[in-house]
Amino acid sequence: MLTKKHTEIEYLANKHSFDLNHNELKLSFRYNAGSGHNLQLGLNSKLIRLNYGDFLPLNDQSSVEQLSFEPEQSINNGIFAGDTWEITPRLTIDAGVRGTLYMYLGPKTVYSYAENNPVVVDNIICSEEYGKNDIINNYKNLDVMLSSRFEVVRDFSLKASYSRLHQYTYMLSNTVSVSPISKWKLSDPHLKPMSGNQFSFGMYSELCE
User: Fold this and answer.
1) Has residue 187 got a pLDDT over 70?
2) Where in the chain are the domains?
3) Span 184-189, mean pLDDT?
4) 54 CB-near residues (< 8 Å, 6+ apart)
5) pLDDT value for 155
6) Rounded Cα–Cα distance for residues 77 and 104 (Å)
7) CA dihedral 6, 63, 65, 13 (to 10 degrees)
8) Which of these, 97, 188, 182, 108, lies nearest to 146 by C-alpha position?
9) Residues 164, 197 contacting (CB under 8 angstroms)
10) The model scores a pTM over 0.85
11) d(C-alpha 167, C-alpha 177), whole Å
């Protein structure tokens, strides 16, 4: 029984390389505008490259077939503005907006699928080749952030916040394989960015000096 279990592991044994590179440029300014206002302005640009590498058999006993995967890359440009407004010594409000322009780049082979059908190999109807750094598609979105703090008494305050954000990079997990794995994935023509709204409210107090 132990020998059979050992044989099954060798039969499925594999190795898979993966690499993620994140490069970012960011420029920001702060300006005290008076009347309790502290302004923030800036812009940033993120270049993300994903290299999925090769899916290879681990040893001579493995029957796993070799597979090669295309790399992915994207640029996410953003411009943001915010204001920290101290209305009174007890009440402060932070507000900000960020505009983003996400671009999915080549080189890449992009497949088109039959309309209203699952995105699987059997439903591919055509493909299009994109060269290095060609813009395959893009997404434009606006992020919003708002938070406030009110000091009721010394060392006790109330806080509330709201944010609407967009996410262009995902973590995909596979738990059905022999060795569960997680991989990063970029938004593409078939996988739209994820958006979310978050509300929070809390109380803050310092109990110890």
Assistant:
1) yes
2) 31-202
3) 92
4) 16, 17, 66, 67, 68, 69
5) 83
6) 12
7) 10
8) 97
9) yes
10) no
11) 27
As given in the structure block, the two tokens for residue 208 are: 């110890």
- Going by C-alpha positions, the residue among 146, 29, 150 that lies closest to residue 86 is 150
Sheet holding 19-34, edge to edge: 19-34, 37-51, 72-86, 91-105, 135-153, 156-167, 194-205
Report helix, strand or coil for 86: strand
Kindly report whether the peptide bond that precedes residue 180 is cis, defined as omega within 30 degrees of 0: no
**If you count them, how many residues does the chain have?**
209
| pLDDT, averaged across the chain | 87
Q: What is the mean pLDDT of residues 105-132?
A: 91
Ordered DSSP codes for 46-69: EEEEEE--EEEESSTT--PPPEE-
CA distances from 148 to 3, 153, 198 (A): 64, 16, 14
